[in-house]
Design a protein that fits this description.
Blueprint: E1 4-13, E2 24-29, E3 32-38, E4 55-62, E5 68-74, H1 85-91, E6 95-101, E7 111-114, E8 124-131, E9 136-143, E10 165-171, E11 181-184, E12 190-197, E13 202-208, E14 218-223, E15 232-235, E16 246-253, E17 260-266, E18 273-279, E19 288-289, E20 299-308, H2 309-318
Antiparallel strand pairs: 1-2, 1-20, 2-3, 4-5, 5-6, 6-7, 8-9, 9-10, 10-11, 12-13, 13-14, 14-15, 16-17, 17-18, 18-19
Protein backbone atom coordinates (compact mmCIF):
# COMPACT_ATOMS: atom_id res chain seq x y z
CA UNK A 1 0.00 0.00 0.00
CA UNK A 2 1.39 3.40 -1.01
CA UNK A 3 1.09 5.88 1.85
CA UNK A 4 3.03 8.93 3.09
CA UNK A 5 6.47 7.89 4.30
CA UNK A 6 9.77 9.76 4.52
CA UNK A 7 11.00 13.09 3.23
CA UNK A 8 13.37 14.38 0.55
CA UNK A 9 15.44 17.53 1.06
CA UNK A 10 16.72 19.35 -2.05
CA UNK A 11 19.51 21.81 -1.21
CA UNK A 12 22.99 23.12 -1.97
CA UNK A 13 26.12 23.03 0.18
CA UNK A 14 28.08 26.05 1.41
CA UNK A 15 31.77 25.79 0.56
CA UNK A 16 34.03 28.83 0.20
CA UNK A 17 36.83 26.79 -1.39
CA UNK A 18 35.29 24.09 -3.58
CA UNK A 19 32.45 24.48 -6.06
CA UNK A 20 29.39 23.11 -4.21
CA UNK A 21 26.73 25.49 -5.51
CA UNK A 22 24.97 22.56 -7.17
CA UNK A 23 21.90 20.42 -6.48
CA UNK A 24 22.21 17.93 -3.62
CA UNK A 25 19.66 15.50 -2.20
CA UNK A 26 19.28 14.35 1.40
CA UNK A 27 16.86 11.65 2.55
CA UNK A 28 15.27 11.31 5.97
CA UNK A 29 16.21 8.32 8.10
CA UNK A 30 13.00 6.40 7.65
CA UNK A 31 9.98 8.53 8.50
CA UNK A 32 11.92 10.75 10.90
CA UNK A 33 12.01 14.38 9.66
CA UNK A 34 14.75 15.27 12.18
CA UNK A 35 17.45 12.80 11.04
CA UNK A 36 18.98 12.90 7.57
CA UNK A 37 21.65 11.42 5.31
CA UNK A 38 23.10 13.03 2.19
CA UNK A 39 22.57 10.90 -0.91
CA UNK A 40 24.95 9.99 -3.75
CA UNK A 41 27.86 9.53 -1.35
CA UNK A 42 27.62 13.22 -0.56
CA UNK A 43 28.13 14.29 -4.19
CA UNK A 44 25.78 16.57 -6.15
CA UNK A 45 23.22 15.04 -8.49
CA UNK A 46 22.85 18.06 -10.81
CA UNK A 47 24.80 21.15 -11.74
CA UNK A 48 24.33 24.22 -13.88
CA UNK A 49 27.04 24.97 -16.44
CA UNK A 50 25.17 27.82 -18.10
CA UNK A 51 24.15 31.16 -16.66
CA UNK A 52 26.39 32.15 -13.76
CA UNK A 53 27.77 28.61 -13.45
CA UNK A 54 26.16 27.80 -10.12
CA UNK A 55 22.81 27.35 -8.39
CA UNK A 56 21.56 28.10 -4.89
CA UNK A 57 18.29 27.96 -2.95
CA UNK A 58 16.55 25.14 -4.88
CA UNK A 59 12.84 24.43 -4.54
CA UNK A 60 11.20 21.12 -5.52
CA UNK A 61 7.60 21.06 -6.70
CA UNK A 62 5.33 18.03 -7.07
CA UNK A 63 3.31 18.75 -10.21
CA UNK A 64 -0.27 17.56 -10.57
CA UNK A 65 0.70 15.83 -13.83
CA UNK A 66 3.19 13.53 -12.08
CA UNK A 67 6.22 15.63 -13.02
CA UNK A 68 8.57 17.00 -10.36
CA UNK A 69 10.32 20.31 -10.95
CA UNK A 70 13.45 21.68 -9.29
CA UNK A 71 13.55 25.47 -9.55
CA UNK A 72 16.73 27.23 -8.37
CA UNK A 73 18.51 30.58 -8.20
CA UNK A 74 21.03 31.14 -10.98
CA UNK A 75 23.91 32.31 -8.79
CA UNK A 76 27.48 31.31 -8.08
CA UNK A 77 28.81 33.23 -5.07
CA UNK A 78 32.09 31.38 -4.47
CA UNK A 79 33.60 31.87 -7.90
CA UNK A 80 37.38 32.06 -8.46
CA UNK A 81 37.29 35.88 -8.47
CA UNK A 82 35.51 35.87 -5.10
CA UNK A 83 32.05 37.18 -4.18
CA UNK A 84 30.78 40.61 -5.12
CA UNK A 85 27.46 41.12 -3.36
CA UNK A 86 26.84 44.54 -4.93
CA UNK A 87 27.09 42.92 -8.34
CA UNK A 88 24.94 39.95 -7.31
CA UNK A 89 22.16 42.24 -6.04
CA UNK A 90 22.25 44.87 -8.77
CA UNK A 91 23.55 43.10 -11.87
CA UNK A 92 22.93 39.44 -11.07
CA UNK A 93 20.98 36.88 -13.04
CA UNK A 94 17.28 37.46 -13.72
CA UNK A 95 16.85 33.78 -14.61
CA UNK A 96 15.61 30.69 -12.83
CA UNK A 97 17.25 27.31 -13.50
CA UNK A 98 14.74 24.46 -13.86
CA UNK A 99 14.99 20.66 -14.12
CA UNK A 100 12.14 18.11 -14.56
CA UNK A 101 11.73 14.47 -13.50
CA UNK A 102 9.00 11.83 -13.35
CA UNK A 103 10.70 9.65 -10.72
CA UNK A 104 13.06 11.89 -8.66
CA UNK A 105 16.02 9.93 -10.04
CA UNK A 106 16.40 10.81 -13.74
CA UNK A 107 16.37 14.54 -14.49
CA UNK A 108 16.17 16.64 -17.64
CA UNK A 109 18.83 19.03 -18.82
CA UNK A 110 18.49 22.45 -17.14
CA UNK A 111 16.66 25.31 -18.81
CA UNK A 112 17.08 28.99 -18.03
CA UNK A 113 13.92 31.08 -17.80
CA UNK A 114 14.01 34.86 -17.36
CA UNK A 115 11.37 35.87 -14.81
CA UNK A 116 12.66 39.07 -13.16
CA UNK A 117 11.60 42.27 -14.97
CA UNK A 118 13.93 44.34 -17.14
CA UNK A 119 16.24 46.31 -14.86
CA UNK A 120 15.81 43.99 -11.88
CA UNK A 121 18.97 43.05 -10.03
CA UNK A 122 18.31 39.37 -9.45
CA UNK A 123 15.78 36.54 -9.06
CA UNK A 124 16.58 34.81 -5.77
CA UNK A 125 15.19 31.88 -3.76
CA UNK A 126 12.24 30.82 -5.95
CA UNK A 127 9.37 28.88 -4.41
CA UNK A 128 6.06 27.68 -5.85
CA UNK A 129 2.57 26.88 -4.59
CA UNK A 130 -0.41 25.55 -6.53
CA UNK A 131 -3.44 27.83 -6.92
CA UNK A 132 -6.54 25.63 -7.28
CA UNK A 133 -8.71 28.62 -8.20
CA UNK A 134 -6.78 29.33 -11.41
CA UNK A 135 -5.02 26.02 -12.05
CA UNK A 136 -1.71 27.91 -12.07
CA UNK A 137 1.43 27.51 -10.02
CA UNK A 138 2.35 30.75 -8.29
CA UNK A 139 6.13 31.09 -8.47
CA UNK A 140 7.56 33.77 -6.21
CA UNK A 141 11.11 35.03 -5.75
CA UNK A 142 13.11 37.97 -4.36
CA UNK A 143 14.14 40.81 -6.67
CA UNK A 144 15.27 44.40 -6.45
CA UNK A 145 13.86 46.73 -9.09
CA UNK A 146 15.83 49.52 -10.72
CA UNK A 147 15.46 52.80 -8.86
CA UNK A 148 16.04 54.78 -12.08
CA UNK A 149 13.06 53.22 -13.83
CA UNK A 150 12.11 49.86 -15.34
CA UNK A 151 14.06 50.32 -18.60
CA UNK A 152 17.86 50.47 -18.48
CA UNK A 153 20.16 51.18 -21.41
CA UNK A 154 23.51 49.48 -21.63
CA UNK A 155 25.31 52.63 -20.49
CA UNK A 156 23.23 52.66 -17.29
CA UNK A 157 23.97 49.13 -16.10
CA UNK A 158 25.63 50.52 -12.95
CA UNK A 159 22.25 51.86 -11.81
CA UNK A 160 21.17 50.89 -8.30
CA UNK A 161 18.23 48.63 -7.60
CA UNK A 162 15.92 49.22 -4.68
CA UNK A 163 15.39 47.02 -1.61
CA UNK A 164 14.52 43.40 -2.24
CA UNK A 165 10.83 42.61 -2.58
CA UNK A 166 8.87 39.44 -3.26
CA UNK A 167 7.56 39.14 -6.81
CA UNK A 168 5.15 36.54 -8.19
CA UNK A 169 4.58 35.04 -11.63
CA UNK A 170 2.24 32.31 -12.87
CA UNK A 171 2.94 29.14 -14.83
CA UNK A 172 1.22 25.88 -15.69
CA UNK A 173 4.17 23.99 -17.13
CA UNK A 174 7.30 25.68 -15.70
CA UNK A 175 8.20 26.68 -19.25
CA UNK A 176 5.98 29.71 -19.93
CA UNK A 177 5.62 32.35 -17.21
CA UNK A 178 3.48 35.48 -16.94
CA UNK A 179 5.14 38.87 -16.28
CA UNK A 180 6.16 39.10 -12.63
CA UNK A 181 4.39 41.51 -10.30
CA UNK A 182 5.20 42.80 -6.83
CA UNK A 183 3.62 40.68 -4.09
CA UNK A 184 5.20 41.64 -0.74
CA UNK A 185 7.30 44.60 0.38
CA UNK A 186 8.84 45.48 3.74
CA UNK A 187 10.74 48.62 4.73
CA UNK A 188 14.43 47.89 4.11
CA UNK A 189 13.82 44.75 2.06
CA UNK A 190 12.40 41.23 2.30
CA UNK A 191 13.71 37.95 0.85
CA UNK A 192 13.32 34.16 1.03
CA UNK A 193 9.54 33.79 1.21
CA UNK A 194 8.02 30.33 1.48
CA UNK A 195 4.35 29.39 1.77
CA UNK A 196 2.50 26.59 3.54
CA UNK A 197 -1.22 26.04 2.91
CA UNK A 198 -3.41 24.37 5.54
CA UNK A 199 -7.12 23.53 5.46
CA UNK A 200 -8.00 26.90 6.96
CA UNK A 201 -5.17 29.36 6.21
CA UNK A 202 -2.21 30.37 4.11
CA UNK A 203 1.03 30.80 6.04
CA UNK A 204 3.95 32.76 4.64
CA UNK A 205 7.44 32.86 6.09
CA UNK A 206 10.11 35.33 5.00
CA UNK A 207 13.25 37.20 6.06
CA UNK A 208 13.03 40.93 6.80
CA UNK A 209 16.40 42.60 6.28
CA UNK A 210 18.41 42.55 9.53
CA UNK A 211 19.40 46.21 9.15
CA UNK A 212 15.85 47.47 8.56
CA UNK A 213 14.35 49.67 11.30
CA UNK A 214 12.31 47.46 13.62
CA UNK A 215 13.32 44.36 11.67
CA UNK A 216 11.08 41.32 12.11
CA UNK A 217 14.02 39.11 11.07
CA UNK A 218 12.51 35.73 10.08
CA UNK A 219 8.75 36.09 10.49
CA UNK A 220 5.53 34.09 10.10
CA UNK A 221 2.30 35.61 8.81
CA UNK A 222 -1.16 34.03 8.52
CA UNK A 223 -3.87 34.98 6.03
CA UNK A 224 -7.03 33.57 4.46
CA UNK A 225 -5.67 33.22 0.90
CA UNK A 226 -2.45 33.85 -1.02
CA UNK A 227 -3.61 37.21 -2.38
CA UNK A 228 -5.70 38.21 0.65
CA UNK A 229 -5.10 41.50 2.43
CA UNK A 230 -5.77 40.11 5.91
CA UNK A 231 -2.33 38.70 6.73
CA UNK A 232 -1.26 39.17 10.35
CA UNK A 233 2.16 38.53 11.86
CA UNK A 234 1.93 35.69 14.38
CA UNK A 235 5.66 35.19 15.00
CA UNK A 236 8.85 37.16 14.37
CA UNK A 237 12.54 37.10 15.33
CA UNK A 238 12.48 33.33 14.75
CA UNK A 239 15.95 31.90 15.23
CA UNK A 240 17.48 34.97 16.85
CA UNK A 241 18.41 32.97 19.93
CA UNK A 242 20.45 30.67 17.67
CA UNK A 243 22.46 33.27 15.75
CA UNK A 244 22.25 36.96 14.79
CA UNK A 245 21.85 36.11 11.10
CA UNK A 246 19.31 33.53 9.95
CA UNK A 247 17.38 33.26 6.69
CA UNK A 248 15.80 30.81 4.26
CA UNK A 249 12.75 29.65 6.27
CA UNK A 250 11.50 26.23 5.15
CA UNK A 251 8.17 24.81 6.37
CA UNK A 252 6.41 21.46 5.96
CA UNK A 253 3.92 19.19 7.72
CA UNK A 254 4.66 15.90 9.45
CA UNK A 255 3.49 12.83 7.55
CA UNK A 256 1.89 11.17 10.55
CA UNK A 257 0.65 13.69 13.09
CA UNK A 258 -0.77 17.16 13.50
CA UNK A 259 2.68 18.75 13.63
CA UNK A 260 4.59 21.22 11.48
CA UNK A 261 8.29 22.00 11.15
CA UNK A 262 10.02 25.28 10.40
CA UNK A 263 13.73 25.27 9.60
CA UNK A 264 15.88 28.40 9.51
CA UNK A 265 19.31 28.65 7.90
CA UNK A 266 21.97 30.29 10.08
CA UNK A 267 24.98 31.83 8.34
CA UNK A 268 26.61 33.80 11.16
CA UNK A 269 29.14 31.10 12.03
CA UNK A 270 30.77 28.01 10.55
CA UNK A 271 29.62 25.38 9.95
CA UNK A 272 26.51 26.95 8.50
CA UNK A 273 23.17 25.25 8.03
CA UNK A 274 19.68 24.63 9.26
CA UNK A 275 18.22 24.58 12.76
CA UNK A 276 14.72 23.22 13.34
CA UNK A 277 11.59 24.42 15.12
CA UNK A 278 8.26 22.66 15.52
CA UNK A 279 4.66 23.38 16.54
CA UNK A 280 1.32 21.63 16.89
CA UNK A 281 -0.45 25.00 16.68
CA UNK A 282 0.60 26.58 13.40
CA UNK A 283 -2.31 29.04 13.51
CA UNK A 284 -0.77 30.66 16.60
CA UNK A 285 2.81 30.46 15.32
CA UNK A 286 3.96 28.85 18.55
CA UNK A 287 7.36 27.67 17.33
CA UNK A 288 9.61 25.74 19.73
CA UNK A 289 13.21 24.84 18.97
CA UNK A 290 13.86 21.14 18.42
CA UNK A 291 16.54 19.92 20.86
CA UNK A 292 17.82 17.11 18.63
CA UNK A 293 18.33 17.59 14.90
CA UNK A 294 20.73 15.52 12.80
CA UNK A 295 21.69 17.06 9.46
CA UNK A 296 25.08 17.10 7.69
CA UNK A 297 27.04 20.33 8.14
CA UNK A 298 26.66 23.20 5.66
CA UNK A 299 23.35 21.89 4.32
CA UNK A 300 21.95 25.09 2.90
CA UNK A 301 18.69 26.69 1.80
CA UNK A 302 16.37 24.26 0.04
CA UNK A 303 12.98 22.61 0.46
CA UNK A 304 11.56 19.43 1.96
CA UNK A 305 9.25 17.23 -0.11
CA UNK A 306 7.09 14.73 1.84
CA UNK A 307 7.24 11.40 0.01
CA UNK A 308 5.10 8.37 -0.68
CA UNK A 309 6.48 5.04 0.53
CA UNK A 310 7.22 3.85 -3.02
CA UNK A 311 9.18 7.04 -3.74
CA UNK A 312 11.17 6.68 -0.53
CA UNK A 313 12.01 3.03 -1.27
CA UNK A 314 13.11 3.87 -4.83
CA UNK A 315 15.44 6.66 -3.67
CA UNK A 316 16.81 4.58 -0.81
CA UNK A 317 17.58 1.73 -3.21
CA UNK A 318 19.06 3.90 -5.96
CA UNK A 319 21.38 5.71 -3.53
CA UNK A 320 22.67 2.95 -1.22
CA UNK A 321 24.70 3.86 1.84
Amino acid sequence: MNEPFGYLLVHFVEDRVGHMEKIFLSLSEGDNPLAWRRLNQGEPILESRGGTGGVRDPNIVRGLNGVFHIVATDLRVWRPAGPNWWEFRHQGSRDLVIWDSTDLISWSEPRYITVAPEGAGMAWAPKAVYDPLSGDYLVFFSAGLATSGPQLHESEMQAETGPSQIMVTRTRDFVAFTPAETYLEQLGGVIDMSVLVTDTSVHRFAKHDDAAPGSLHVFHQRGSAFFAHDFVTVAHDIGQEIAPNVEGPLAFRDNDENRWYLWVDQYARSPQGYEAYTTTDIEAGDWRRVPYFSLPENTKHGTVLPLQSSEYKALDAFYPR
